[in-house]
Design a protein that fits this description.
This protein is of the alpha/beta class and 897 residues long. It folds into three domains: 66-275, 3-Layer(aba) Sandwich (Alpha/beta knot), CATH 3.40.1280.30; 343-597, Rossmann fold (3-Layer(aba) Sandwich); 620-892, Alpha/Beta hydrolase fold, catalytic domain (Rossmann fold), CATH 3.40.50.1820. The strands form five sheets. It has a nine-stranded mixed sheet, sandwiched between helices. Strands 7-9-8-12-13-14-16-15 form an eight-stranded mixed sheet, with helices on both faces. The chain has a six-stranded parallel sheet with strand order 3-2-1-5-4-6, sandwiched between helices. A hairpin with a 5-residue loop joins strand 10 (406-409) and strand 11 (415-418). Helix 3 (85-104) runs parallel beside helix 7 (235-248). The relative contact order is 0.06.
Length: 897
């Protein structure tokens, strides 16, 4: 093997682990296939010696010919818009397994029909093996929906010229109250082609009811009472169960032979019930193995659950628990040397708009990945059903868990291990001089600089220091105190005197270097909120030592100690009988502290409004308090509206315009400065971007809430939270008038672009959240929303965009005569809690069902109608969503010339 050159970048420890794991999997895969081949050869030799022909030869000779079952199966692929890209990829794999199972079966169904094939599912299939699915035998691929079975296409169902009867179609859905007791020849069974992890309830059932066809569920509960997990199966599993029933006419045998063993949770499985030859998908097998490995790490080998204490880290699963206790036991081989000075970090990405960051340092001998698992809830066995994990309760927070550098530790007999600084002795007892615990001031300052560099990276990414918390466990807690309360004296290059953070968290930690700490304190230290938790039974970093540290900070440095969550000073909390670990109550207290110092802000002002706006490579043109020229068409009352806005000028010839409205609490300048928008604008050089700012208005739902300012920039009012649609809102004059005022403002921007020479058809109106909602009404609505007589038919725009929005007006909204020809791109996150996915989907469905606008998945990019797409994010814009928007704009506003 050729050795890498000296200048090549070495792999981090985490990358080495991934590479080693991939190599092991590949090796196991090769070994398994070799064993399978050898087993097949052995069986063939045994059959040959017994005078039995090879099954493949018997089939050719007629001994085992396929006997088709005269029924058809339809895979309904009409859910493309409800899946993320990852789910679409998973679905296409399931389709391949489905076809393969039918082709290999001795009793196959006469035909497989795949309906509503378009959008991302079709693109994914086209990209695999040069559209190899088109060569599958006994299959049909329709762009139309499954209703073509009984509507107008009899020839495609078998060539006999007879139209299939609606009564012969059965939609299989787990939500049906009817059980499918047997399969009948001549019938057609529909399986919903969706991979959604059971996210959508009654979806297939409602589709069957809308089509007025029969529906039924597989009788799993009747035959498999021990299936304690959810009874939702993949597409290929449902199909293989049907195949197995046709072969055996036995539901119980069909279920046992197809349903993966992991779904039985080890309660019933026997060698007779589940054949040894059953093979799960490779990815599922690996998931099972990961679960087994994690269970072995979490569950102790002796004792019962009742003997286990509640503390999270005392569950013997987190290596953070043993950071100090097991030092003597650990060996050098446990921790491979780090070859790069660049520290790797485990990360928990935010699921909502990223507005805050927590940097959490592990203890001695540990690694960031351990605490990532603790915080994400992977090791929890006490959480109640429905109870949120810490990241779920703080969806706007990004978590960074850096790995400490490798260095010799005196207390571990000079062995090299992950450590933020050297320690002379363990355990740390109250009688010890804090200055004598360690003397490696250089490595301590280097570690502070590591955390500082991570803070600087977050600041450059747009997160201000006032929205960053540093924290840590044990040795990491000591490091966090030095980083968060220390000034320039703790750092090797960066300045700390002006870096005031949102807060500090110390779990089972202590104050390092008493004398030096006092001389290196930052000027703002007294005003920083500190959460400090410690167990009274800690035998590694003694509880008394933590108390002494807090007393020193209070008496010598003047930092207050109190019981107010999130207030400046130290909130010191004790946990009875907790050892050198963490517990559920401490995690709850930690979450409450973080909610106080870095609260959610997606509704009370966009996260972008807090960012520093220094973007020298992309300076937007700022137009403050300017008035859009509108004298040609609009009356004086509209021309006098003060419209503050920001523009991003096109880099090429200006031939098209996008007007993009922000969400509640944001403004045009901050919205224009976000990374996603700037990247998109740079990819479409012929488009001018306009970001108008909404007027300030009183938000009804926020009145009396001390956490929010009721006066905020918004296109319309929020009457209550959580956000819902109600017909009663449309009868409130103030609510409707506010929407009409915003429509007039956006009308003025559109007219201004038309006056400058850009045709209506070369203008796209869109927005995020509230901005998307007001864009739908402005771009698709008629003249009752305007005071302009010559606009009775509304605009004829190049397109409308709604990201994370909804339709706030329904009964009083009348679409313009051009709305049915207007392309609409509508994207929404399935994890959105601010504007729920359900509210958004109901709005899109309303447009289609009640107002005659076609809606659904993408068939052709930018065609008329509503293209509704789902993404795996919360209340913000997904990367894949921005790519889809780029393709939409490229189609709606193509580059001319």
């Amino acid at each position: 093997m050729e050795l890498p050159e000296e200048h090549s970048q070495p792999l981090s420890k985490k990358a080495q682990k991934r590479a080693a794991k991939a190599a092991r999997l590949q090796e196991q895969k090769s070994e398994r296939r070799a064993r399978e081949k050898e087993a097949k050869k052995r069986k063939r030799r045994e059959r040959a010696q017994a005078g039995d022909a090879d099954p493949r030869k018997r089939r050719k000779m007629g001994g085992q010919d396929q006997i088709p079952f005269a029924a058809q199966v339809v895979i309904d692929l009409g859910f493309d818009h409800m899946m993320t890209d990852k789910e679409v990829t998973s679905l296409t794999s399931q389709l391949a397994y489905t076809y393969s199972a039918n082709r290999r079966s001795l009793t196959p169904f006469t035909s497989l029909i795949f309906t509503s094939l378009n959008g991302r599912t079709k693109s994914r299939l086209d990209a695999i093996n040069d559209a190899g699915y088109r060569r599958w035998t006994n299959t049909k691929w329709w762009e139309e929906g499954y209703d073509q079975i009984w509507v107008c296409n009899p020839d495609s169902l078998g060539g006999d010229g007879s139209e299939a009867r609606r009564a012969s179609v059965v939609y299989l859905t787990a939500d049906s109250e009817e059980e499918l007791m047997e399969l009948k020849e001549g019938e057609i069974y529909v399986i919903g082609g969706i991979c959604d992890h059971n996210r959508y309830k009654n979806l297939c059932l409602e589709k069957a009811q809308t089509s007025s066809i029969r529906h039924a569920r597989l009788p799993i509960g009747r035959y498999i009472a021990s299936l304690t997990t959810r009874k939702v199966l993949t597409v290929n599993q449902v199909f293989e169960i049907l195949l197995k029933w046709v072969e055996t006419r036995d539901w119980e045998q069909a279920f046992w032979s197809v349903i993966p063993k992991r779904k039985f949770q080890g309660k019933v499985a026997s060698s007779e019930a589940i054949p040894d030859g059953e093979l799960l998908e490779e990815e599922e097998c690996q998931d099972d193995q990961d679960d087994i490995d994690r269970a072995q790490e979490v569950v102790p080998s002796e004792g019962s659950e009742e003997d286990l204490p509640l503390p999270l880290a005392s569950m013997l699963c987190s290596r953070g628990v043993h950071s100090f206790i097991s030092l003597v036991v650990r060996t050098l081989s446990t921790y491979p040397s780090r070859y790069s000075h660049q520290m790797s970090s485990a990360v928990i990405q935010p699921t909502a708009a990223h507005t805050a960051t927590v940097i959490f340092a592990h203890g001695l001998g540990d690694e960031g990945e351990s605490w990532r698992g603790v915080i994400s809830g992977e090791y929890e066995n006490y959480r109640k059903p429905g109870e949120l994990t810490i990241p779920a309760s703080l969806p706007h927070v990004k978590w960074v868990f850096p790995d400490a550098p490798q260095q010799k530790v005196t207390a571990n007999f000079g062995a090299r291990m992950p450590s933020w600084f050297d320690l002379f002795d363990i355990p740390l007892q109250p009688g010890q001089n804090l200055d004598k615990v360690f003397e490696d001031d250089e490595s301590m300052r280097n570690s502070v600089q590591i955390i500082d560099d991570l803070i600087e990276a977050e600041v450059k990414a747009g997160i201000p220091e006032s929205r960053i918390v540093v924290g840590g466990f044990s040795q990491g807690g000591a490091l966090s105190l030095a980083t968060g309360l220390g000034g320039n004296g703790w750092r090797t290059k960066s300045t700390g005197d002006e870096r005031k953070l949102a807060g500090i968290t110390v779990l089972s930690g202590w104050m390092p270097l008493k004398d030096k700490f006092q001389s290196r304190i930052a000027p703002y230290a007294k005003s920083v909120p500190v959460f400090w938790g410690h167990g009274t039974a800690d035998a590694v970093v003694y509880y008394k030592l933590a108390q002494m540290s807090v007393e020193f900070l209070q008496q010598q440095l003047g930092i207050s100690v109190h019981d107010q969550v999130g207030a400046p000073g130290i909130n010191f909390l004790s946990y009875e009988w907790m050892a050198h670990a963490s517990c559920k109550q401490e995690m709850n207290d930690l979450a409450a502290f973080l909610e106080s110092v870095i609260p959610k802000v997606w509704l009370n002002g966009s996260h972008r409004s807090m960012h520093a706006h220094s973007h020298p490579t992309w300076p937007p043109s700022l137009c403050l308090d300017s008035r859009v020229p509108s004298s040609k068409t609009f009356p004086l009352e509209m021309a006098s509206l003060p419209l503050t806005f920001v523009t991003i000028s096109p880099k090429a010839k200006h031939t098209a315009t996008v007007i993009f409205a922000h969400g509640l609490g944001d403004n045009g300048l901050d919205f224009s400065n976000n990374k996603e928008i700037r990247t998109l604008a740079s990819q479409l050089p012929h488009i001018k971007w306009i970001f108008p700012s909404a007027p300030e208005r009183t938000i009804t739902a926020w009145k009396g809430d001390p956490r929010r300012q009721s006066l905020s920039r918004g296109w319309l009012d929020y009457l209550r939270e959580p956000l819902v649609y109600s017909k009663e809102y449309e009868e409130i004059p103030e609510y409707v008038d506010g929407i009409m005022q915003s429509v007039k403002q956006l009308d003025a921007f559109i007219q201004s672009e038309i006056d400058s020479g850009i045709p209506e058809g070369r203008i796209v109106l869109g927005g995020f959240s509230q901005g998307g909602a007001i864009s739908l009404i402005t771009g698709l609505g008629r003249s009752q929303w305007r005071s302009v007589t010559d606009m009775k038919d509304g605009w004829k725009l190049g397109g409308v965009v709604c990201l994370g929005g909804w339709l706030p007006i329904r009964e009083k909204l009348h679409l313009s005569t051009h709305s049915s020809a207007t392309p609409v791109f509508w994207g929404h996150g399935v994890q959105d809690e601010a504007v729920t996915w359900q509210l958004s989907w109901e709005s899109a469905k309303f447009l289609g069902d009640k107002l005659g606008v076609r809606y659904g998945q993408y068939t052709k990019m930018g065609e008329p109608g509503v293209s509704f797409m789902s993404y795996g994010v919360a209340h913000w814009m997904a990367e894949s969503e921005m790519e889809d928007l780029r393709l939409f704009l490229k189609k709606a506003l193509p580059l001319e010339g």
